Structure formats: C-alpha cells, structure tokens
Amino acid sequence: MNLLLLCRPGFEPETAAEIADWAARREIAGYPQAERGSGWVRFHDLAAQQENTGADPEEEAGRNTARPALPPRNLIFARQCVRVLADLPQLDPSDRLTPMLAALADTPWRPFGSLIVEHPDSDAARPLAGLARSFGNALRPALRKAGLLSASEDLQQPCLHLCFFSGTHAVLGVSQPRGERIWPQGIPRLRLPKEAPSRSAQKLEEAFQILLRPDEREQWLKPGMSAVDLGAAPGGWSWILTRHHIHVTAIDNGPLADSLLATGLVRHLRADGFSWQPTQPVDWMVCDMVEQPRRVAARMAEWFAHGWCRRAVFNLKLPMKKRHAEVQANLADFHAHCAEAGVAVQTRARQLYHDREEITVLAWS
Question: Is 317 a catalytic residue?
C-alpha cells in the first residue's frame, strides 16, 4: 500500500526509517521518499505500483469489493499515517471538487465516518491552513450528497483525509477508525491555562490524549489514585495529574510552583529521582528528567521490576544522530530489563507535538 505520513519537520529521516522497517518486517517491497524540513514522508509500495500499471479493469473492480488493509497506528515518529487513495498533483483552483469526487467514486470504504482536511506542519505549508479550513466546509456536504460520507460523524468507521501540499496539489487518503476524534495533522488542540506551572504540562496532557484510548482514560485516571512525579520541578506534570484529582508525590530537589502546592493534592519531597524509592506501590509514575535515555529507560524498568507502579509515562531524550536506532535500542533495553525480572510490560510511544528532541512512552503492566 502507498502511504503518506505526517511528522515533525526535521524528523523525516526517522519517519522514513521507521516505515521502511515496518514494511520490511511484513515483506512489503517498497521505498520511502522524504524531503528534509517538509513535515511529510511518502512510502511507495512497488507491488501496488505494478498492479496499478498493468491491472485489468474487471480484475481491479473485483478487488475493490473488499476493503484492503489500512496503515499502521503504532508508529512513533508519524503523527498521521494514511493509505493513499489518490494523488492529485494538477488541481484546477476553480474546481478542485470534481476530480476529488471522481477519485473516490469506487472507493471500497464508502461511506467514510469522518473527514480531516490538513496540510504538513512546515513553514512552507502553514499558509494552506485557511484553504484547508474553507475547503473542508465545502467538501463535507458534497461528499454526503454523493454517499461518500456518513450523515453524521461516525468514529467507528475509517476516516477520509485530504492533505494539501499546495493550492493545486492534494492527496486523498484513509486511516483506521479509532473510536475517537482524529485531529488535523495529528496535533490535538490544547490550551495551557495560565495557572499551569510550566509549558511542559502540555506534554503530559497530550500523552494522555494520544497514547490512551477513551476507555483507558476513564479507567486509569480516576480521582483518588496515587502517583509519583520524578524530577517534578516546577510541577507541570504533577499539575496535570491533580487536574484528574490524583494524589501526587513530587520528587525533586528544586522548588515547586505555589499554585501546585495550593491544590492540596501534592506532597513535595526533596530527593533525587534516580535513587528515591516509594514505600508502597502507586497507580502512576511519570518522569520527564533530562538525562541520558538509556539511563532513564533502565530506571523506569526498575520501577516495574520492583512493582512500584502499575503504569508510567516517561520521556526519552534523543541524540543528534541515529535517533530511530537509539529509540529502538532504548525500548528494547526497557523490555529486556522488565523481562529479566519476570514482569510483562506493554508500551506505546510517540513523538508528540509538544515534544522536541524526545519521545514519550506509555508503559503498563
């Protein structure tokens, strides 16, 4: 399958390496196409191209009666990953709608449950935001009239994506149903309240939105739960936990914001996050310490090995080079340490919008 992946500008090589590894493990012959700073990567499936080049029209129509496979959801560096349905490089600005409807006429996914109109998150593409917003308002009723979009939003059905690269070039694609809203560009729109101790609070809030399913957020973030925040100062991550009415033990030799202590849900202990140990297990451990990623991964594994926490969110800082390889090595080390202790731990990881040179990992036992 041909894929379009949207990512943080500058991380196209990591996204390309990750999708190439994914394809190789599934014996999909193809190659990634990336342009530094563009915010996108294309994966070209050679088998799909050969089929499209020499396909018999009747055989092709027969294949369209069943839904083909959809792209993966568990990539780390890709914020959005869609299966390409049509590449439209020569759109007429006076009538973009007609060729799009024609390209979707025989799609096996009709009707789609929702529509996302987006553009890459790059300096060059940001001026397309107005076009994406206005064109989406025109496209939705046209899709519904053609029977291509459900009458109301259905988050259990595949999502149709329209990604503008310019005013005359767009790609139509489809992504897996998630049972929850999908954000344009894969970026949740979060507001930082003025009382938040730091902007890092948005990292944990985004992690809960992206890495947890709706049912998990409901079950795993309940009032009265307990948490430890390693390297807490000035308290952004602890503050997010208190917003869920979770009791927090904040571990840091530095000071915490007065607004955080005023919640009455935080106990501050001046200690080193790499040596402090809890006296009893907690529901959550979170960590955003600036340290070598392998050391952080080993410390996180120690928490699970000793049964000190049930779930964790932590950040792994990235090196300047070979970042994809380093991420894979760090996660492999984390799982290996847990396995040595006889603890089965599952993980999800993503480079979030509010991350910079790091990734965020969710782990649970």
Answer: yes
